[in-house]
Structure prediction request, 335 residues.
Amino acid sequence: MKRKLVVFAGFLLVATNSAVFISAHAASSPKSVATVSAVKGAKWNPTIKLSYSKSSVIMEPTGIPNHSRDAYYAVPNAGVVVPNETTANIIADPTKAQIYKFTIPTTPQYSSSVTTTSLGSIGVMVSGAVLYNPFEGDGQTVAMANNFTITNSAGITASFVDKCSGHPTPNIGAYHYHGLPTCVTAKVDKAGKPSRIIGFALDGFPIYGDRDINGRQLTAKNLDQCNGIISSTPEFPKGIYHYVLLGTADARSSIACFHGKVDSTQIQSMPAMGGGQMPMPDLDAAAKKLGVTVDLLKESFGTTNPPDLAGAAKKLGVSETVLLNALGIQANPKG
Prediction:
């Protein structure tokens, strides 16, 4: 049952992302800052296609970073969503070019409320790869905290997450980061100097490494709940709200929420890491079966991940079994 809910949890976050808000801790709301000059001045991988409109930049990365990757990766066994040393196997690096197209605002709008990031692409990095939030497919396990290394019978050793804080999905080869990619910062930053832009989040605000304008180390204590801060950067000496990736093995390793207005249509779901997962539920069909609106169905799931199905059923006035059947999820017998 738990395994069957994993893809549903990721899908639900994408479907409800524009409506899920949590309180913010930033002291003030900055004025809108045009980012187009900074976008054009960033050290992009030449494989990324950039085109501009009056209010946005269209980014089309291939998903293949311009730094070395591991030759082999530890990936989940069939039917496993979040692996460990005993439920993983080793495969040759499956990274493949992807078809991405993100329309990102060049005058991002800071919001006093925030939108939870979903599983899947939440930003485009200058390396050509994309950024994910801190979590694996269950929406709870922190990727950087779950890293491990195994050796197979052929003597090949591989890790779940590589030294660049990234790994590919085994099925479609979608490489992505879950934390600070030092392979990227090494190309754009100088030792002891400020961090420079290493990407842009889908809400349009820039992403940086963990050094402030004076080259000092930043920690979670300096940042808001989204891993953001309003301060000067080399590209924005007058200050801008921006995200900071930390080199930590916890939930602060990546962006947990957007502090800018984000177009939910730009958010792409996370490809499956393991096999044996169920198809994504049809919320429109489920709502029709339950005799409720899609919005009410989404609202009933709340903001937890995985969703509280028992709580959702209670809010909708139906049994959990009825809700599961409407969603096309077969309930496992208890005991």
